[in-house]
Design goal:
189 residues; alpha/beta; four-stranded mixed β-sheet; 7 helices; 9 strands; 44% helix; binds guanosine-5'-monophosphate
């Protein structure tokens, strides 16, 4: 089996994580690429499951050792990156890889893998709706909320560069559309 890659990108709060979780339950041939990050762990998160949580120094060391497929300083001093070893680990298990990465990282991976990868952009219906969802999630301070909304507006301008756009107005519908799009891709290629 030739290993493939499913890239899911979106402004944070667009519902990307829920869509990815649903896909993972439904599509048993997909395994989640655990990213590395230097941001601090949220209460409900586990090291080596949600992320490999690293210090800024550890992260920079891995950059220097060329261990990343891609990495971004998503917010100042908050690094996020995909380790090359993750992709090979998953392919070696006979699975396809699914990534939950930011927009630039997603396009970066797509560029490296071309037709072997499907890049999907999950779009919130509006920025106002995105703000409401982030407030409801309750993980943001007023400062980080503003940072994320500013970044979201910028990220929306990249949507057209993705292979597919899934609008998340109704989560259930978006999840089903995602499954259809991914199934088609895994079947055809
Ligand atoms: P959060 O802090 O909410 O978990 O993630 C913040 C942003 O970083 C999200 O857009 C998420 O998709 C992105 N991100 C997570 N992992 C990676 C990665 O490996 N590379 C890149 N470029 N972005 C990532």
């Amino acid at each position: 089996m030739k290993g493939k890659l499913i890239i899911v990108s979106a402004p944070s709060g667009a519902g990307k994580t829920s869509v990815v979780k649903y896909l993972l339950e439904y599509q048993t041939h997909l395994s989640f690429s655990i990213s590395a990050t230097s941001r601090s762990k949220r209460e409900n998160e586990k090291d080596k499951k949600d992320y490999y949580f690293l210090s800024v120094e550890e992260f920079k060391q891995k950059i220097a050792q060329n261990e990343f497929l891609e990495w971004e300083e998503v917010y100042p001093n908050q690094f996020y990156g995909t380790l090359k070893s993750e992709v090979y680990r998953i392919w070696n298990e006979g699975q396809h890889v699914i990534f939950d990465v930011d927009v630039k990282g997603g396009l970066n991976i797509k560029q490296q893998f071309g037709d072997q990868a499907l890049a999907v952009f999950v779009k919130p219906p509006t920025i106002r709706e995105l703000e409401k969802r982030l407030l409801y999630r309750g993980t943001e301070t007023p400062e980080t909320l503003k940072k994320r909304l500013d970044k979201a507006s910028y990220e929306l301008s990249f949507a057209d560069q993705f292979d597919v756009i899934v609008v998340n107005e109704d989560l259930k519908i978006a999840q089903k559309e995602m499954v259809r799009v991914v199934d088609d891709f895994l079947r055809v290629y």
